[in-house]
Amino acid sequence: MSMFAGFEHIVREREPLAPFMWLRLGGHAEYLAEPTNPQELAGLVRRCRENDVSVRILGGGSNIVVRDQGVPGLVIHLGAAAFAQITIADNVISAGAGAKLGHVISTAVREGLAGLEPLVGIPGTVGGALHGNAGTDNHDVGQWTTSAEVMTLSGEIVTHQRDELRFAYRYSNIDELVILRAHFALERDDRAELIKRLQRIWIVKKSKQPPSDENMGRLFKNPIGIRAAELIEQAGLKGAKIGGAEISDHHPNFVVARAGATSDDVVRLIELVRSQVRDRLGVELETDIEIW
Ligand SMILES: Cc1cc2nc3c(=O)[nH]c(=O)nc-3n(C[C@H](O)[C@H](O)[C@H](O)COP(=O)(O)OP(=O)(O)OC[C@H]3O[C@@H](n4cnc5c(N)ncnc54)[C@H](O)[C@@H]3O)c2cc1C
Questions:
Q1: Contact 49, 39 (CB under 8 A)
Q2: What CATH number is given for 84-208 in this structure?
Q3: Pocket of ligand 1 (CB under 6 A)
Q4: What is the CATH number of domain 216-291?
Q5: If you measure from the C-alpha of residue 279 to the centroid of ligand 1, how many angstroms do you get, rounded to a whole number?
């Protein structure tokens, strides 16, 4: 632990990552840090650079499978309050990367600010949402993002303005180590109407999306013009199982981790689905979920 001398209060060694994961699976992080402010974060990042230690950033854990053997290097979780602040000035809502996306959406709606509400129901944090430009068929977080503050590998804080940011389907060009904060310029709308709209969207989403109490992961990006779920269904893979990992019957682009499942089961199931869809339908699926 001498490498993290001075950071003992925020760094733990061989820390299980499963409790942070939406799938509730996976091994340990060699080191896990939960900095309480940007200064500590910058110090950790610099320390890792000096010691040639790899760093990964963990948001809500809804788009990651951690392998059973665990993750080398340092995993940084931005769970502290300092990284989750949400503020509003006029029609701009600013949110720390650790804030839950759902919390940002409900705060905006309460303030009569429209735009983000179609994204209700997407689990995870603002940082995770920006990293992969989380969204639905017609809306994504990038379309409302006017600037983003990031931290580089050397611990420097840089702000990217809108004209430097590029977003596409499940892609953003923000490639610095840490996303710290984002600013979303929204549109004024009638608050009561907006609340009703949010409720309507939420009801429809709930009927289409798997229940949030299941240990689930969304697996593949949609290839152009077709849904990954349809391909998985056409390939006859609804309900396919490896060990405790199972392709959901109702939502075939989701894996469910049943009792006793391991990350290895999930990873092998992903490979099975990918190869069978390729062999049977000639389509190469690209994973959306990251394997650490
Ligand atoms: C039930 C369910 C439904 C879902 N529905 C949708 C949907 O409708 N649309 C959609 O787009 N996605 C969906 N997802 C996928 C997932 O919720 C999104 O990708 C989400 O934005 C991930 O956020 P997170 O905070 O959980 O990120 P994590 O899973 O923690 O991390 C994902 C990636 O983002 C990086 N990251 C996280 N925070 C930061 C940061 N501060 N700085 C730099 N990098 C960071 C991580 O390093 C990792 O590379 C769904 C997932 C589930 C389980």
A1: no
A2: 3.30.465.10
A3: 22, 56-64, 78, 97, 122-125, 127-129, 131-132, 134-136, 178-179, 209-210, 216-218, 290
A4: 3.90.78.10
A5: 29
Instruction: Report CA 229 to chain centroid distance, whole Å.
Output: 20
Instruction: Write the single-letter amino acid at 189.
Output: D
Q: Relative to the CA of 176, which ligand 1 atom is closest?
A: 43
CATH class of the 2-81 domain in this structure: alpha beta
The model's pLDDT over 241-264, given as tens digits with 9 standing for 90+, comes to 999 999 999 899 999 999 999 999
CA distances from 79 to 127, 129, 201, 234 (A): 11, 15, 28, 40
Asked if 160 contacts 166 with a C-beta cutoff of 8 angstroms, the reply is no
From ligand 1's centre to the CA of 150, what distance in Å? Answer: 17
**Amino acid found at 81:** A
- Residue 191 bears catalytic tag: no
Q: Tokens 């009703």 — which residue?
A: 196
List the catalytic residue out of 12, 56, 67, 170. Answer: 170
| CA-closest candidate to residue 148, choices 174, 167, 170 | 174
Tokens for 207, please give them: 């009927």
Residue whose CA lies nearest to ligand 1 atom number 5: 122
Q: What is the pLDDT of residues 39-60, one digit of tens each?
A: 999 999 999 999 999 999 999 9
> Taking the complete model, does pTM exceed 0.90, yes or no?
yes
- Indicate the length of the chain as a whole number: 292
Q: In a 10 Å sphere around its CB, with 0-12 CB exposed, 13-18 middle and 19+ buried, how is residue 68 labelled? A: middle
